Amino acid sequence: MKPAPKQARAAATRERLLDVAGELLAEVGIERISTNLIAARAGLSPPALYRYFADKYAVLEALGRRLMARQNAVLDAWVLRHAGGGIAAMADHIGDLLAETAAVTRAEPGAVWILRALHATPALAHVRLESHRGVTDRLVDACAPFLPGVAPESLWRRLRLAVEIGFAADEMLYEERRIAPDAALADVAAMLRAALIDLAAPR
Predict the structure, then answer these.
(1) Over the range 13-35, which residues count as b (16 or more CB within 10 Å of their CB) and which as e?
(2) I need a labelling partner for 198 at 20 to 30 A (CA). Which of 53, 54, 131, 162 fits?
(3) What DSSP state is assigned to residue 83?
(4) Alpha carbons 140 and 159: distance in angstroms, whole number
(5) How far apart are alpha carbons 23 and 29 in whole angstroms?
(6) 46-78, pLDDT tens digit by residue?
(7) What's the CA gap between 25 and 201, in Å, rounded?
(8) For position 37, what pLDDT does the model report?
């Protein structure tokens, strides 16, 4: 990927291109979206778009990274609010983390298609993997001081699975209409809360 521009005007143009690309992705899907379509919708020439992105896969990668960064900002704020209270405080507020992350995701233009692209395109799989590993590392840093008896590799494994379950449940709700989103997130929060409390139980 080309580095994000530092000048305000160029950065704003790049963000507009990503917004347009997200909207188009929702309209035409992964296969049909192209740099020409994105440029035309944004009112730019294709060469102008290529100053920011080499091809459509670079656009998709940037969309994925932007979405993951916004999700991660929710996590950082949540950790700041609750990590000081220990495992119990974090466990009791997992539902907040899931709901706030879901809200940020749904506010992103073309979010469901961005997520599908990250799953379906081998060249983009690393974006999701790196982000989920980073989320796991952040949670390990928050939880480890309160779990001195838990081996680091066990803690990382447990939290990595929890991260994947949380994201997978939210993604499922884009397609599964037989489950109310609030109920599903509450069930997942209860499951993850129990898993976190179990880690803190005396061995």
Answers:
(1) bbeebbbbbbebbeeeebeebeb
(2) 131
(3) G
(4) 7
(5) 10
(6) 999 999 999 999 999 999 999 999 999 999 999
(7) 46
(8) 96
